[in-house]
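Tutorial, part two.
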Amino acid sequence: MKLISLLLLLCTAAAVHAEPEPTIRICDDTGCSDRPRSTTTFNPNADVNPDAERRLAALKAKAEKDPRAAYDLGLRYFRGDGVRQDSYQALQWMRDAAERGDLKAQTAVGKLYLMGLEEMGSDPAEAEKWLTIAAGRGDKEAKKLAAQASTAKKNEVAYRRWVDTQRVLWYDYWQTRYTYRWYWNNSGWYYRDDY
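Running the prediction step on this input gives:
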C-alpha cells in the first residue's frame, strides 16, 4: 500500500512540474499544423489600414445623410472596392438609398433582386416592384428590366434559363457600367455629378 501511495505521489509531482509541450496544434480552414508555443497569436487589428478605415468611416457618415453616398457605399461593398466584398452589406446600403428615393439605387436594387446573388436567390416580384418605381421616374434600363421581371413571375423555368445566360454579363456590367458618384480626396469625400 505504501509503495502504491509513493508511486502516485511521484507521478503527481512529475505531472505538476512537467514542462509544457514546445508546440501547439492549430486548426483552421486551411488545415491543421503544429506551431511553436512561443509565437504570437493572430491579431486582426494589426492588418487594419488606418487610412482605409478612415475613408470608410467618412463614407458611412455621408451615407447616413445622403442616399447617393449610400448607393456608392453599396456599390463598393458589391465590388469589394476599398472594403471587404460583402453582398449582404451591398444590398442593405443599396436598398437604404432606394428607399430614400435615389433613382440609380432603385434600378440597382431591382436588378439585384431580378438576378439574385450567389448567397440569395432571385425574387422577380420584389424586382418588379423596384424596377416599376424606377421606370415610372424615367429610367429606360429599369423599364426594360421591369418587363423581364414581369415575365419572370409568370414562367419560372424560362426565367431561370434567362438568368443562367445573363449572369456572366451581369457581373461584368456591375463592374464596369455603374459609376461612383463620390470620390476620395485627401481631406474627404466629394460628390461628382457629371457621371
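The first strand starts at residue 23 and ends at 28. In part three we will examine how such features are distributed along the chain.
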